[in-house]
Amino acid sequence: MERKSIKSVLVLVAMEAEALPLVNILDLKEDVPPRIAPPAPAVSYTGEKFGITINVVRNGKCQLHGVDNVGTVPAAVTAYLAVHELKPDLVISVGTAGGFKARGAAIGDVFLATAFANHDRRIPIPGFDKYGVWRIDAVPAPNLREALSLKEGVVSSGNSLDYSKEDWDQLHANEAAVKEMEAAGISWVAHLHNVPFLALKSITDIVDGDRPPQEEFLENLHSAAQALQRVISPVLEFVAGKTIKEL
Amino acid sequence: MERKSIKSVLVLVAMEAEALPLVNILDLKEDVPPRIAPPAPAVSYTGEKFGITINVVRNGKCQLHGVDNVGTVPAAVTAYLAVHELKPDLVISVGTAGGFKARGAAIGDVFLATAFANHDRRIPIPGFDKYGVWRIDAVPAPNLREALSLKEGVVSSGNSLDYSKEDWDQLHANEAAVKEMEAAGISWVAHLHNVPFLALKSITDIVDGDRPPQEEFLENLHSAAQALQRVISPVLEFVAGKTIKEL
């Protein structure tokens, strides 16, 4: 796989407000009929750019509550169905996240993931404990990081926007620079399919700061989505046609 | 859907130790080639009994850590693929769980779910808060409950075997009688597919008791799995050929 040049990239996004700026800047079109068959709520967009096929797939909306299907469960289901259908050479989870200022994060930064882990799966039985945390490396992309001057760090996932004391302790054990709600679930699916996986996370709120995450998140969602919009084209242009080892 | 008689039942189980006693008592055979295509780690078993088709599907083992793929992410992915492939008339999540003695639970009891909710998805933004908890009713099955003298209550799911203070508060807000790690994720998938969904949960440990859950869980896993083995045949015999409204 690593000698093959990258000809298709699947970009997975949880929220519509994160996805649409990417769809616009990449000039993608919504797939009609849908590429991810119902009843999956996922919505996909496709186009050709930089000589490769680009798909952006978002998790769609909750039928009962009308909000975006955030969290690891919809992320993993969408990822499974999208990888199966689209057979990408590279998967990138793109979205907003909390950042740790102790690891150099500031609002608006875009981080490249070095590894993925969970901070809300505590199973204190030997074997299950490591499975719960899961921790797995991202595909190394030192040239991409340098070319785009991205910060880098561990992305830790959990299903809450806030954190409990136990989450906090595991975030630190995971050496998390970035806290979000999807990437670890997707990394499990990417590992099953043996498909290279990266993540780009734009910081909306400071986890080890003074303010409640929901306040900062809503305040900075738009500007963080714009930061992702600025970075997505250079990232895709960089990876297009390269082998995984060249990243 | 509700006028159709039940001709196929999909039983979803997280752990091999929970699944094999069911497979044995129902005299099912492992599907070769697998019905759930790789790279999904799920393992499926099929047979005919009580005049209907019965499939038991477990989540399979973690490639990295060798343990069963427990938690909401593998449960939802397995459920999605299994429902898509097998098109069951009824889905039942069967497994072991913690029980609240304050809601009448004792070790070895088998509970029938009345509703499903999450206790570890805190998203304090309007709309997302309700999405996070998710709460959805199980298909009503008063005749089944009475015929088998099952206890009943809300099944609340989270990705940890233990609980944080925040989990505890949400377990109480959910009025949980049963705490486990899969059913809410499956209930999301069942809702997407509009397929009737039940759960049977056998109590291995008392959540509001004095002992660490991992101790009681390991001590009582075998006897709780036996309790499920005793109840599964009468449950399937009861539902076979009935309509959903007759349950």
Intertermini distance of chain A:
14 Å
Protein chain pair with the most extensive contact, residues per chain? A-B, 53 and 53 residues
Strands of chain A, total number = 10
Question: Which structural category do the helix and sheet elements of chain A fall into?
Answer: alpha/beta
Oligomer: homodimer
The CATH superfamily name of chain A is: Nucleoside phosphorylase domain
* CATH fold assignment of chain A: Rossmann fold
Label the overall shape of chain A: globular
Widest β-sheet, arrangement of strands of chain A:
5-9-8-6-10
Topology:
The structure is a homodimer of 247-residue chains.
Chain A: E1 8-13, H1 16-26, E2 29-30, E3 43-49, E4 52-58, H2 72-86, E5 90-99, E6 110-118, H3 128-133, E7 136-137, H4 142-148, E8 151-157, H5 165-173, E9 176-180, H6 183-193, E10 197-206, H7 213-239
Parallel strand pairs in A: 1-4, 1-5, 5-10, 6-8, 8-9
Antiparallel strand pairs in A: 2-3, 3-4, 5-9, 6-7, 6-10
Explain what the structure shows:
2 copies of one chain form a homodimer. The first copy, chain A, is α/β, with parallel strands linked by helices and 247 residues long. Chain A has one domain: Rossmann fold (3-Layer(aba) Sandwich). Helix content of chain A is 35%, strand content 26%. Chain A is built from 7 helices and 10 strands. Chain A has helices at residues 16-26, 72-86, 128-133, 142-148, 165-173, 183-193, 213-239; strands at 8-13, 29-30, 43-49, 52-58, 90-99, 110-118, 136-137, 151-157, 176-180, 197-206. In chain A, strands 5-9-8-6-10 form a 5-stranded mixed β-barrel. In chain A, strand 3 and strand 4 form a beta hairpin. In chain A, helix 1 runs parallel beside helix 7 (213-239) and helix 2 packs parallel to helix 6 (183-193). Chain A starts with 7 loop residues before the first strand and ends in an 8-residue tail after the last helix. The mean pLDDT of chain A is 96. At the A-B interface, helix 2, helix 3, helix 5, helix 6 and helix 7 of A face helix 2, helix 3, helix 5, helix 6 and helix 7 of B.
